[in-house]
Amino acid sequence: AEKIVLPQVRIAYDFYHWEANILECPFLDPVTQQEVDLYIQYLQSSNFEAEQGWFERWQDYEAIKEAYESENASRNFPDWYDFYNGRTGASVFMLLPDIRGQKEEFYMDLWRKDMHAEVEITKKHNEEIKKLTEATGIKLAEEHDTRPYLSQHKDGWLTWFVTTFEDKETQQRFENYGGERNYSEYDEFIDNNLDLLALSEEPVPMEAWFDWKEALHRTAEKFRVQKIIETLPVVFEQYKMNLELNISFSEKEKEANPMDEYFANAILRGREVNGEPRDFEF
């Protein structure tokens, strides 16, 4: 909304980088005891969401804003955001206009049109080469890999591969480990839940539910939440110690995602196409 300027953020996509380096993010205030207490309240609420969807991200601004304003969005508004906003009044920020985003989209659109023009030129060039080769009788060599695609998820394939190509010792180890899983019947969530509950040093009472898989899942999630609540104060003390002693939270900052520069260069190209300087001063 152009209410503040962050030197570490050139374009909106840069927020994805800081999402991955959240503990090293220089423009965020340190976590407070009140925020830790608020998150524990969230953990104890009925709306606690252990994780987002497979393709959803915490900084997915456009989709999250759409989810806040509409019931027909492609994703849900994060339960943690809803919990936090409702207790701090921060939901007012969701009403601010996306001024910077519209500017970036303007340059991105110019870049797309420029890319499309280059593609058309390439197509025309390839068509001319094709006509030339047809006229001269010279054919372009094309190599195709005709080997079959091997899928480890196809039932029976792994067993066939081991018995066909591996030595006797490896075949015996394969058999000792239980052989091949039937992927059509395998449920990784059951294994994950059992592995988690196996970490408990004390018996964990099962949650009552008419479906045993769901009962197992609810029991594991309750156990997970309880352990997070027990661990948070310890983690917070370590966090404060790192801040006081100026100790980094990681050995090095995670490397930049290639997509960061991809979108940055796209916007710079859009600026160039529009006759403007290749910078982010807009």
Summarize the helices and strands and which ones pair or pack.
Blueprint: H1 14-20, H2 33-43, H3 61-69, H4 79-88, H5 99-136, H6 157-165, H7 168-176, H8 188-197, H9 212-244, H10 258-273
| Amount of helix | 40-55%
User: Roughly what is the average pLDDT, rounded to an integer?
Assistant: 88
Number of helices: 10
β-strand number:
0
Radius of gyration: 27 Å
The CA-CA distance between the termini, in Å, is 13 Å
The H/E string reads: HHHHHHHHHH
Task: Kindly estimate the percentage of residues that lie in beta strands according to DSSP.
Answer: under 5%
Biggest sheet descriptor: none
Low-confidence stretches: none
Based on secondary structure, the structural category is mainly alpha
- Rough outline: flat
Report on this structure.
The chain is an all-alpha fold. The chain has 10 helices and no strands. The chain starts with 13 loop residues before the first helix and ends in a 9-residue tail after the last helix.
Short descriptors:
282 residues, single chain
What can be said about this structure in brief?
Helix content is 54%, strand content 0%. It has 282 residues and is mainly alpha-helical.
